[in-house]
Design brief:
Trna Endonuclease, Chain: A, domain 1; YefM-like fold; about 220 residues; 13 strands; 2 domains; alpha+beta
Length: about 220
């Protein structure tokens, strides 16, 4: 059985290899204790990427997003990732030999995410994350297309500004679910996700973030 370090090393190498196959620049930090493992050049921009091992559980890919470290005074501490630390989470599923790219704007603060390979048995679509949307070739191509031709892509690109340029994610939910979990979706919108609310399958309202850059949240606190 592989240890956590072994899994992390395999995932990082697999993600770097897949990125290289797609013609991306792959950079590795020379210093330790960074919150990201790799820097990938996509569409003329540099993205700080944390690499994760993903497990397959029937029709669901489980990605543990939180990292942990040992503190002499607090013991083992678990910490999630924010947009000020990384720009994306890349996950490698060894069972499928596939890589996935998760923009941090959509998953900041999450401890885990489940990527579905197929439809839910009850045909639910709201609040689900389908693996096909985040699979490496397509997800990378979408980011590259959005970045292409922008002023940032033609000029300088400090890593600290990357998070501002990631395209905002969109999530579609039913009106009943929105009423029951209003606080949760309000928080998701505050982090940068656009929430499309449907009633009987028809779009009826949209909740959009007041601040598009999640890293800017709390700036006035």
């Amino acid at each position: 059985m592989r240890s956590s370090n072994d899994k992390g090393n395999v995932a990082e190498l697999a993600i770097a290899t897949e990125a290289a196959k797609l013609g991306l620049s792959v950079l590795k930090p020379l210093t330790e204790h960074e919150r990201y493992d790799l820097v990938l050049g996509i569409g003329g921009r540099l993205l700080r990427v944390q690499c994760k091992w993903a497990a397959l559980r029937q029709e669901v890919i489980v990605v543990r997003l939180a990292g942990s470290y040992h503190s002499p005074t607090r013991g083992y501490v678990s910490k999630t990732y924010g947009a000020d630390e990384v720009d994306a989470i890349a996950a490698y599923c060894h069972d499928l030999h596939k890589c996935f790219l998760l923009p941090i704007a959509e998953f900041a603060g999450r401890r885990s995410v489940h990527l579905r390979l197929g439809q839910a048995r009850n045909n639910q679509r709201a609040a689900l994350h389908f693996a096909a949307r985040y699979e490496f070739p397509g997800a990378v191509a979408q980011l590259a297309e959005r970045f292409a031709g922008s002023e940032e892509a033609r000029g300088s690109n400090p890593l600290s500004s990357i998070g501002e340029s990631l395209p905002p994610p969109t999530e579609t939910i039913g009106a009943h679910q929105f009423r029951n979990r209003f606080g949760f979706y309000l928080e998701q919108a505050a982090r940068g996700t656009e929430i499309l609310i449907s009633n009987r399958g028809r779009p009826c309202a949209r909740l959009v973030p007041a601040v598009l850059n999640p890293a800017a949240l709390g700036a006035d606190e």
